[in-house]
Amino acid sequence: MSTLAVIQARMGSTRFPGKVLQPIGGKAILLHIVERLEVVPSIDEIVVAIPDCAVDQPLRTFCREQRISFWSGSEADVLDRYYGTARRYGSGDRQHNLHRISRISVFANAAERRHPCAE
After folding, report:
1. Domain boundaries, the chain
2. Roughly how many angstroms between the first and final C-alpha of the chain, as a whole number?
3. What are phi and psi of 74, to 5 degrees?
4. All residues at 6 or more sequence positions from 20 whose CB lies less than 8 Å from its CB, including other chains
5. Where are the alpha helices (DSSP H) in 3-114?
6. How far is residue 110's CA from residue 54's CA, in Å, rounded to a whole number?
7. What CATH code is assigned to 2-107?
8. Per-10-residue mean pLDDT, the chain, length 119
9. What's the predicted TM-score (pTM) here?
10. CA nearest neighbour of 79 among 25, 8, 11, 19
């Protein structure tokens, strides 16, 4: 069974537009999140789920430049965006665990993010 971590991210926030690409310590928040997830042994793949809106183009460009996998889907239907991501990055006949990662998890301790069934 594989584990897919899906980071929900968008540029069009009403409270803090573009937050996910804002730098902390010289790195975009999204990059901090991806790097923290890369060290979690139970995560097999990391994908960013992005709305398919023009305002989110800088986010897609950033993911391409940083070689971060991403999927663009409906802005209005977050569940459909996750479903599309799972279908695209899931491997057909294998079973998957899907972890939803909030873009505000930049301060989460990666060592504490274990698969809930691992123990």
Report:
1. 2-107
2. 15
3. -55, 135
4. 9, 10, 11, 28, 29, 30, 59, 103
5. 29-38, 57-66, 78-89
6. 32
7. 3.90.550.10
8. 87 86 93 91 91 94 97 89 84 68 60 49
9. 0.81
10. 8
